[in-house]
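Notebook entry, structure prediction.
Reason for the run: the old model in the group folder had no record of what sequence produced it. Starting over properly, with the input documented here first.
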Amino acid sequence: MRRFLVVPLLFVSSLSTVPAQASEDAEDWRLFGNVLALVQQFVRAAAAAPDAESARSGAITGVDSVLAGKNAEANRAVGDVLSEVLREMPAEQRGAFTSIARDVLTIARREQLRAPVERDKDDALRARKDLHAMGLRYWDEQQYEEAVKRGDRIAVELFLAGKGLAPRTPR
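New structure, fully documented this time:
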């Protein structure tokens, strides 16, 4: 999982320890059930990814919808969890708690938006290293053209992913 999933999962996991350590009354188990329902949304979204790279890269629309507040079941679970936690919390701590919760969500969204940029850089660096390992220079247009002529699709894809060649304008 990408970093943008770690922050919300750690936050939710920390909440789940409260009912696990408390007595077995109905309120505690309802809170624990809501925490599980929320975690389940993240896990389900990650499991629905078509491949491991999609799950790692954060290109999971299910996780995106949970973090963006577009998943009704996750919204209900978050609302129920927060209601339970805030109900018994003294008023003077509620403000700090809700501020922290907003900040955690802001961090998660920022990480979610930053992930594609970092992934793009990582992919370009990896392609450049792979080309170097093949004895090719990622900026060499002649080597790129020779790879195209010989039909070396792997090298061509690595050249393009390495982003070392200037884009050509049509003549």
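Summary: The chain has a mean pLDDT of 76.
The old model has been moved to the deprecated folder.
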